[in-house]
Amino acid sequence: FIEGKNTMVVSELRKQMEQFAQQQRFEEAARVRDQIEAIEIFRSKQKMVSTDEIDRDIVAVYHEDEDACGVVFKVREGKIIGRQHFFLQGVQEKSVAEILKSFLQQYYLKIQFLPAEIFLPFEIEDLDDFEKWLSKKHDAQVKLIVPKIGEKAKLMQMAMQNAKLLLEELNLQKMKAKEEYVPNSVKALQEALHLPNPPRRIEAFDISNLAGTHAVGSMVTFVNGRPYKSGYRHFKIKTVEGIDDFAMMKEVIGRRYRRVLQEQEQMPDLILVDGGKGQLSSALESLRKLGVENQPIAALAKRLDEVFIPGISSPQNIPHGSPGLKLLQRIRDESHRFAISYHRKLRGKEMVSSVLDEIEGIGEVRKNRLLQSFGSIEKIKQASVEELVKVGVIPKNVAEKVWKYFHPQSSE
Questions:
Q1: Contacts 24+ apart (CB under 8 A), 287-294
Q2: Average pLDDT over residues 324-340
Q3: Is the pLDDT confidence value at 292 over 60?
Q4: Do residues 70 and 145 share a domain?
Q5: Confidence band for 172, pLDDT divided at 50, 70 and 90
Q6: Which of 94, 334, 71, 80 is nearest to 225 (CA)?
Q7: Contact at 8 Å (CB) between 310 and 288?
Q8: pLDDT above 60 (res 271)
Q9: CA atoms within 13 A on the CB side of 318
């Protein structure tokens, strides 16, 4: 390779590797990584030759989050004869200088041969004392050098890039392992529902309309059998009047997956609706209107924990206590809890509004100002007339009406 072209190729390959990693295309990322490493090794053998033929080690450390990578290039008689690398864990609370010093201590404690020079990427604390300790331990003179300019600095830079590349490889492997991991409960659910793929991502829906007021829908998301709170959503019912759970489910499913399709997001591995065959049919109808076919979907009825899937009128025979059914129950219960909590929040807001709306002289603007100033109805109730005027910024005659409303016996 010509050096300039070689550098450009490596730079482009690095960008390509990062793109593959972000897209979770780990096998392609690994192949590009191997190409980069091959070029780096080839380049090092061609360029890393010193005329002084001094034996030296080039030590580099790269640190990211909780992991670090230490690299040692061995230069003997002016040529690279080998490379060693070590992954260092549990270093998130250490500085990179502390990591380097600890790595040097551990590495040179075990080796028998000490070179005349050790190149470091930067100075460490008590460098002179550490140099003396090394020399005394091995009964040989060694110099710790931080190269600043010229070919030696370039060699050091290459070693640092190598450490970075190796740590990126480790992170790729971790990401791939995480993606490939499937919990037993998820595997059991795949088998129980005869799903084509493990249901790693499950989106579950519930409708709440206590006493026919404030009908709301909720969606909770589970990833690999665990709640994924960033994927939770609420839906205020907009198109359905009265109590009609089927129509409400149809609306919520339609709104959710219309947006998924518009934003070109990935559909979940499984949709779970709370209810029986009626809710399942409503959800399926909504999906068909969007042109979504063959989407894995199931319904879990509350009363007997029966599970229904499309095309089969009788419930699935999933043993009680099985990991798959337990996972469905856990998701259904979390979906119900989330819907109820939102419903109570809306009802609480309505109660607050209705109390203040009953007071003469309190319109929308003053109501909002009082709530923002005092934070709650209870604190408004506890405030004096003077505090209502000063903090709530309302006229004294209106403040007196507010106070009298909450203290009817005292005003008699």
A1: 287/253, 287/257, 289/254, 290/254, 290/257, 290/258, 290/261, 291/261, 292/257, 292/261, 292/267
A2: 88
A3: yes
A4: yes
A5: confident
A6: 334
A7: no
A8: yes
A9: 27
Residue at a domain's end among 164, 192, 216: 164
> What is the rounded CA–CA span in Å between residue 204 and residue 233?
10
141 in a domain, yes or no?
yes
CA distances from 75 to 120, 155, 165, 210 (A): 14, 11, 20, 76
Output the pTM of the full model: 0.48
Q: Does 373 lie in the same domain as 243?
A: no
Give the span between the Cα atoms of 110 and 71, in whole angstroms.
Answer: 15
Residue 196 structure tokens: 């084509």
Q: What is the CA radius of gyration of the chain?
A: 33
CA–CA gap between residue 45 and residue 369 (Å, rounded): 74
Whether 178 is in a domain gets the answer no
Tell me which residue range forms the domain holding 397.
358-406
Instruction: Quote the CA–CA distance of 313 and 308 in Å, as a whole number.
Output: 7
Identify the three-state secondary structure at position 16.
helix
Q: For the chain, what is the domain count?
A: 4
Joined together, the tokens standing for residue 37 give 């490493």
pLDDT tens digits, residue range 113-128?
Answer: 889 999 999 988 888 8
Q: Are residues 204 and 330 in the same domain?
A: yes
> Is 147 contained in some domain?
yes
Are 228 and 277 contained in the same domain?
Answer: yes
Beta strands in 260-300 (DSSP E): 270-274, 297-300
Per-residue pLDDT, 179: 65
* Structural contact between residues 404 and 412, judged by C-beta atoms closer than 8 angstroms: no
d(CA 111, CA 123): 22
Contact 400, 386 (CB under 8 A): no
33-88: per-residue pLDDT in tens? Answer: 888 877 766 655 544 456 677 889 999 999 987 889 999 999 887 888 888 999 99
| Tokens 């979770």, residue located | 24
Assess if residue 176 is contained within a domain: no
- Sheet of 56-64, strand order: 79-89, 67-76, 56-64, 117-119, 143-145
